[in-house]
Design brief:
Number of domains of chain A: 2
CATH topology of the largest domain in chain A: Rossmann fold
Structural class of chain B: mainly alpha
Number of helices of chain B: 10
Largest sheet of chain B: none
Strand content of chain A: 15-25%
Helix content of chain B: over 70%
Oligomer: heterodimer
Largest sheet of chain A: 4 strands, antiparallel
Number of strands of chain A: 9
CATH superfamily of the largest domain in chain A: P-loop containing nucleotide triphosphate hydrolases
Number of domains of chain B: 1
Helix content of chain A: 40-55%
Structural class of chain A: alpha/beta
Number of helices of chain A: 12
Largest interface: A-B, 27 and 24 residues
Order of helices and strands of chain B: HHHHHHHHHH
Shape of chain B: flat
Shape of chain A: elongated
Radius of gyration of chain B: 22 Å
Chain lengths: 284, 234
């Protein structure tokens, strides 16, 4: 951190370092016997700040996270999102340069997650913070991140800017960042293809272009496209009515897309997937 | 062979207050002194025991094992046996082995062992995430123990304190058998040894009422120190 290796520091120096990093934990980590304001004041109490200074700083922070009217509330009286805002305010109490959010949105509903993520982005811009956001929710990553790193057993195994990762088909991290949703089954006579946006300049009418290029029918079975940092990214599942794989790959590549045929499902005729889905319905 | 006939001379009702009030005062004194000693020594010992354990703030596995064993031994002896076993120590500390002073020593030892476990147990119920928060907020070990660990565990400690006071009242009655005085002594000498039913009944009533009052006071304090219970009364 700021050119300093923290892993070998003695306890006392480590404590100073911790004060320069604000940490946001999972939503439930407020002291239950302290009010919202008293929770935010915790780092200031530890540092030995005077009561007047503490009061004015806590007031500022409450206003910053939009909870001025909840100052005297205890954690059990706060919603998950409000509790998390208190946690963020507490992390900011000592004016850190880095905000570490450890699974800060886990266990929150999607709307609350969005509002908490929005607050974090706002704070990053206003306070010139570096935010390290740890999460396993890929949707949240796409909302919040500029750069992304994948950790495996405590080591960074892959990293890059969010846009680069989302538009590079070879990246395992990039693939896992793409939303995975179910898709419709292919019609008879078509083969299923998984397609991802593999460049920053995919034309908006690429389905038309690929269809014209191939001279075969292209069925849209499922897709998710969104704009991240001004670039269109996404993935789609297609049913394509030709079995000339090389031509399909080439046609997709001309539009800046990367495609792989689905080998698991039978190409022509009813698919295993469909049979499996039928079996599941029966079981239910 | 002639049977020994004890005179059935129940204490007249009018004389009961003169007999019971000083005894009650002695019980309150004994329990009061013992509780002061227990709180002063048991509380820090409980915090130490909890934090010296693996995963605590100040891991000292050897110290933890040693402390834990000593406390377990203290807790496993029945109080009557403990009291008899440490007579030499009691005499060394107080110069006597009868009376209130002599009772306070074994009661304090048993009480400290008891309360140390209660404090340890209360601290253990504080979620580890709370300790993480206090650590990340830049707290020293002492600050974390005070505000996060103890601060969060206050209702649990008070609940344990209630159990402790009631246990000490019971111990004081047992100590009565070695002539420590107090309600227990009166119950044993008048009620039990002299078959004085009036005194026996009176001591029982006094003890039941005292224990009930302690319990009610403890419950109220727990409620008062738990925001959720205090504010959701309506």
């Amino acid at each position: 951190m700021n050119g300093e290796d923290l892993s070998g520091l003695p306890e006392k120096r480590l404590r100073d370092a911790r004060r320069r990093i604000g940490t946001v934990f999972q939503s439930s980590s407020l002291l239950s016997r302290r009010t919202a304001a008293e929770n935010i004041a915790l780092p200031l109490d530890f540092l030995g700040v005077t009561p007047q200074e503490t009061r004015s700083r806590v007031g500022e922070l409450l206003e910053r996270v939009g909870l001025t009217d909840k100052a005297g509330h205890y954690p059990f009286q706060l919603s998950g999102g409000q509790a998390q805002r208190v946690g963020i305010a507490r992390a900011l109490a000592l004016r850190p340069s880095i905000l570490l959010a450890d699974e800060a949105t886990s266990g929150l509903d999607p709307d609350t997650t969005r509002s908490v993520v929005g607050l974090v982005r706002e704070l990053r811009d206003d306070l010139d913070l570096t935010v390290v956001f740890i999460t396993h929710e890929m949707d949240t990553v796409r909302q919040v991140a500029d750069t992304v790193a994948r950790l495996d057993h405590g080591r960074i195994v892959e990293q890059g800017s969010l846009v680069n990762l989302l538009t590079s088909h070879g990246s395992r991290l990039g693939r896992s960042l793409q939303p995975r949703r179910g898709h419709a089954g292919p019609e008879a006579g078509t083969r299923t293809w998984f397609v991802t946006y593999d460049s920053t300049t995919v034309p908006g009418d690429w389905i038309q272009r690929v269809t014209a290029d191939l001279g075969a029918s292209v069925h849209l079975l499922g897709a998710s496209v969104e704009t991240v940092h001004g670039v269109n990214t996404g993935s789609a599942t297609l049913g394509i009515g030709t079995d000339d794989d090389a031509r399909v790959v080439a046609a997709l590549a001309r539009c800046g897309l990367s495609g792989t045929p689905d080998h698991s499902a039978a190409s022509f005729g009813p698919t295993d997937e469909r049979i499996l889905a039928g079996a599941l319905e029966d079981a239910a | 062979m002639s049977a020994v006939v004890l005179p059935r001379a129940d204490v007249p009702l009018g004389d009961l207050p003169a007999l019971l009030l000083p005894a009650y005062g002695q019980t309150v004194t004994m329990v009061g002194i013992v509780m002061a000693v227990v709180l002063a020594i048991g509380t820090p010992l409980g915090v130490l025991l909890h934090n010296a354990a693996p995963g605590g703030l100040h891991e000292r596995p050897a110290l933890h094992t040693l402390l834990s064993w000593i406390i377990s031994i203290g807790r496993s002896l029945p109080f009557l046996i403990l009291m008899a076993a440490i007579v030499p120590f009691t005499r060394f500390v107080t110069g006597t082995n009868i009376g209130i002073a002599a009772a306070v020593v074994p009661m304090s030892l048993a009480g400290i062992a008891f309360f140390t476990r209660i404090v340890e147990n209360a601290l253990r119920s504080v979620p580890p995430s709370i300790i993480q928060v206090a650590r990340a907020a830049g707290g020293s070990h002492l600050q974390i123990m005070r505000s996060a660990q103890f601060g969060e565990a206050v209702p649990a400690v008070i609940g344990g304190l209630t159990i402790q006071v009631i246990a000490m009242i019971e111990y004081s009655a047992i100590a009565g058998t070695i002539g420590a005085g107090g309600i227990g002594y009166v119950a044993v000498t008048y009620g039990y040894q002299r078959f004085d039913n009036t005194v026996m009944l009176a001591t029982i009533v006094i003890l039941v009422v005292t224990v009930a009052l302690v319990q009610v006071a403890g419950d109220r304090l727990v409620r008062f120190t738990t925001p959720q219970k205090r504010l959701q009364r309506a």
